[in-house]
Amino acid sequence: MKRIARILITVFLLLLLCAGSFEAYTAVAASNTSAEMTELEGSVQVKRAGSEKSFKAFVRMKLDEGDTVITGTDSRAVLVYEDVEIIIPHSSVVVFSGLKKSGDKETTYITIKSGGVGCKVNKKLSEGSKFEVRTPTAVMGIRGTEFYVQYRNGFLDILVGNGRVGMRYNLRRNGTLASQAERIVERIEEMIEGPNHVGLPRVGEIAPRLDGSPNQESYSRFLEELALWKAFINSFGGPDKPDDGTSEIPHNESPENNTEDSDIVYDQGDSGDDEDPGNQNFREVIIAGQSAEMPYDGSEKSLSDIVVTGLLPGHRYEGLSYTAPVGTDVGDYDGEFTGEVVIIDEASGADVSASYDVISFVAGQLTITPKEVTVTTGSAEKEYDRTELTEGSASIEGLVAGETATVTATGSRIDAGSSSNTYDINWGNTNPANYTLTENLGTLTVRPVSSTVMVSIEGNTQTCPYDGTEQTVTG
User: Fold this and answer.
1) Are residue 193 and residue 341 in the same domain, yes or no?
2) Band (442; pLDDT cuts 50, 70, 90)
3) pLDDT tens profile 400-424
4) Are both 349 and 428 inside the same structural domain?
5) Inter-residue contact 168 to 189 (CB < 8 Å)
C-alpha cells in the first residue's frame, strides 16, 4: 500500500496585481514663444510690443509676440521660429502678431504692414496648428512650403516655390477688391500650389479670379521680372541660385540704378522725414486698428484705439473711427473702420492726402481667451476587502463671479491597484467654452491583502487486500 505524504504549501495570494494604472489628466495651457534673429544686413530696427520707440536689432535677439521688425533700404533680417526660417527683405515693416504654442499645436500670425516676408517651413504643421501671413488685402495660410509674400504700393504678390498656400480675400458687390477691414461681401478662398505666382490689385480695383494650379511659366517669369524675389529664392538656395552663391541684385541698389520694371519700393524712413514728400520715391501711411488679447472674465470688452505710422511731422488724420465689436465670450472679434480718412496739415489746415501714395488700413482683432479653472477630487486608500472604494469630495475653483458649476466625483475601485478619482461636471448656465480645465485628481488605491494564508493539502488514503494488481488512490 502506498500512502501519499501530506504536503504543506504556503501560498501568498496576489489578487489582480496591478489591475489598474494611474491616469494623468492635465490641461496644457497655451504659452508665448519667441523667434530668434540669426542674420542681419544693413539697418534693422525692432519695436517692442506696446512701445513707440525702436532700437537696433542684434544677432541672437529674441522676438516676442507683438514685436515689429523694420528693415532699411540696404537691409535684410533672417529669423528662426520653431522649424520655420523667416526672411524679411529691405524696406519692410513686419509684425509678429501671434506666437503661441500649446503642446504640439502652434499658432503663428505674421502681419506685413509694408514690404515682404519669405518663409521656409521645414516640417508639416501638426493637426490644429496655424501659420498665417496677413496683409491689408489678404490672408495666407501655410501648411508646409517655401513661399514669399510681398505687399508694396498697395499691390499683393505671392510666390510659391514648393508646397501649397491657402489664400483668402474679400470682394465687394461690384467685383472690386475689398480690404480685410471692410465688411465681407464675398469671401474668396484659393489654394495656390507651387511652383506658381499670383497677385492681387489695389483695393478698389477689379480683382480677377485666381488660378491656383501649378504654373511653372508664371513662376519663372516673375522671378525674371522681380529681381528682389529672385534674391529671396537665392537665400534659400533655390533653383535659380547663381553659381557664385550671391544674389543677382544687391540689397542696397537705389531706385535710380534699378532698370527692372518692378514694384520694388525702397525704405521710406532712411532718407529723413524732414524732406518734402514729393521728393520721396514712395510714401505710405499705415492706419492700424488696435489689437488685444484679454482673458475671459464675464465682462464686455471692446477696442477703439488707432495707431498711425508714416505721417510726416505736422500732419494728422481726421474722419476715421475704429471699433472691435463688444465681446464677452471666448473668441476672435474683428475690428472695423468707418468714415473717410483725410490727412490734414496742422499749420495750414489744408488737405494733404494727395502727398501720400497709399493709405493702408490694417484691422485689428479682439481676442478673448479662456480662463483657467481647476477641478480637484479627493484621494483614499484601503486594503482589499471585496467592497468598492470611493471618495466623494470634489470642487472647482476659478469661475468668474456669478457663474457656477457642480462637480461630482465618480471614481471607484474594488480590486488591488490605483486609479484616478474621476468626475463629472454639470455646467448649468455657465458656458464651458469660456474655460480651460486644469485637473488635480485624487488617487484611489486598493492595497493587496497583507496577511499570510496557510493552505493544507492532504491526500486521501485507502486500505485494500493484496490481489497481485497495482492499486491506486485519488482525491
Assistant:
1) no
2) very high
3) 999 999 999 999 999 999 999 999 9
4) no
5) yes
